[in-house]
Amino acid sequence: MDKSSELENLKKRMQKDKSLPLREGATNLVFGEGDPDAKVMFIGEGPGFWEDKKGRPFVGNAGALLNHLLQSIKLPREKVFITNIVHYRPPENRDPEATEISAFQPYLDQMIKLIKPKLIVTLGRFSMAKFIPGVTISRVHGKKISLVWDGREIVVIPMYHPAAGLRRPEIKEELEKDFRKIPEVLKDLEEKDKEKQVEQMKLV
Ligand code: URA
């Protein structure tokens, strides 16, 4: 089965899962969207008002800033995959609770395993804590962190949440600076991949 179909099946399983928290108060599941073969995946916090209405991630004001940031580095939104740490809207946009994050975790993990991104950009402290627990965002944002996740080498760059950038111009500037690092990191990762392929060809 191809990746798109596997992702579609995963989405259907989530929609049917009555044990998922926040389901009762929500209009739509916000699974995530983008290129199933994306090299870079963005993980936000949780759906807000418009995301809940439309069933799509980052389509409100924070989404407009995310689109602007993507355009600023000429990375088309359709070429990346965008999702969240929880997939139903928390009431009044409150922070997701630890038990809620845990309930969605197996689905998010499966999503990452299917897409196999080389780079994960976390937006906000909740998705950051999934990969880099015990740090503060003001200290680590924009840093390239290499780690092994599910037996695979990945790079994680924690960034501020775009909604924080909308509230504070200095955070928006940091986000712009941090986004500018993405193309270079992707180029490096591609080169490493090519080197690995050459090494493998030598071994055959
Ligand atoms: N904020 C998020 O964290 N995710 C969205 O999808 C929208 C706003």
Automatic annotation (TrEMBL):
It comes from the Bacteria. Pfam families: UDG (PF03167). One of its GO terms (biological process) is DNA repair. This is Type-4 uracil-DNA glycosylase. PANTHER family: TYPE-4 URACIL-DNA GLYCOSYLASE (PTHR33693:SF1), TYPE-5 URACIL-DNA GLYCOSYLASE (PTHR33693). GO terms for molecular function: 4 iron, 4 sulfur cluster binding; metal ion binding; uracil DNA N-glycosylase activity. SUPFAM superfamilies: Uracil-DNA glycosylase-like (SSF52141). Transmembrane segments: none annotated. Keywords: 4Fe-4S, DNA damage, DNA repair, Hydrolase, Iron, Iron-sulfur, Metal-binding. Its EC number is 3.2.2.27. The keyword DNA repair applies. Belongs to the uracil-DNA glycosylase (UDG) superfamily. Type 4 (UDGa) family. The keyword Electron transport does not apply. The lineage of its organism: Bacteria, Candidatus Woeseibacteriota. It catalyses: Hydrolyzes single-stranded DNA or mismatched double-stranded DNA and polynucleotides, releasing free uracil. It comes from Candidatus Woesebacteria bacterium RIFCSPLOWO2_01_FULL_39_10b. Residues 31-180 form the Uracil-DNA glycosylase-like domain. InterPro entries: UDG_Type-4/5 (IPR051536), Ura-DNA_glyco_family4 (IPR005273), Uracil-DNA_glycosylase-like (IPR005122), Uracil-DNA_glycosylase-like_sf (IPR036895).
